[in-house]
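Journal club side-thread
Mid-discussion, someone asked how the predicted structure for our own chain would compare to the paper's figures. Pasting it here so we can look after the session.
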Amino acid sequence: MANIMVTEGCNLRCPYCFAEEFVNHKPKEMTLEDYKVALDFALSDHNDTQVGIIGGEPLLYSHIEEALRLALSDPRTDNVMIYTNAVHLERIPEDILNTKKFRMLVNCNSPEDMGEEAFEKMVDNLFRFQREYHGDGRFRLSINIYKPDFDYSYVGWLAQEMKFDVIRLSISVPQSGALNGKTPLEYFHDMKLVSMRFVADMIKLGVMTGFDCNFLPKCVLTDAEFDSFKGPKEMFHQALDRRYSNSFWERAIVCEVHNCSPVVDILPDLQAIRCFGMSEYTKQDIRNFRSIKQLRKFYADNVDRPALAVSSSPECVKCLDRQLGTCSGGCLVFKGKELFAGK
């Protein structure tokens, strides 16, 4: 799947923003003509049947209705996913909200981070989408834990009221990879307790946690901690296996995959990046590639494979999992400076 960044403007100022290099500085919008080019490129590999529309906040995009209609009407798409904070959901017409292909991943910040008024509007919009537009199963919450004392108390109530079975969790890392003198593994150790408490508290509510690409590296959990979450995972798997793919279960409740594959984000100027964490180093014009499959291979050959030889923390140097390519030691952003030194 590829994501198309239609605008760099955003109505929020998230303290952990993974796209801070772009958002709200001198925000650019993608022209509708360039959007058509990006959409065609994103769907040029017929194995990809989902396209993501991102920002900034994509609901602020001047052509958001046209952009969604183009993606939804394209026979190559099964799903069109918009990554949004849902505060301005009224900008999407009712017939689009009712479309089965339409999906939302809702970046759900706390009232403290997004403001009480915006939080209440987001919640009202989500209940309305669920109630009036048959939204059950077509949207999920995404939670970004960005500090060891992160207060996620607002999540449980929403999960219960909306009867979620899955919530996406990301352990946010600084865009620049700067950790104030700590190693990446030290950072993830600091974030372990709050992350695993979140997973455990969601299990008590009957909700699975699906990990995004920022997950706890394998060695951060003890064998006992890992095993303690395997029982609930197997229970959920038996109950809900038919609803989810095998790739989902690899990152559900306790993550069993500890590296990532190339993600392609297409910026408003048709420059692509490997992901926002690597935006400083990996810009490529999509018009220089025949297809997204060719661009993914370029990133695999020039970013992902070379990154296997780079250790993000001293403890990773002799790690067999790193040598075998089964663990990246955390986000690739921590390897960027060494990986691209002199380039």
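Post-session note: The mean pLDDT is 92.
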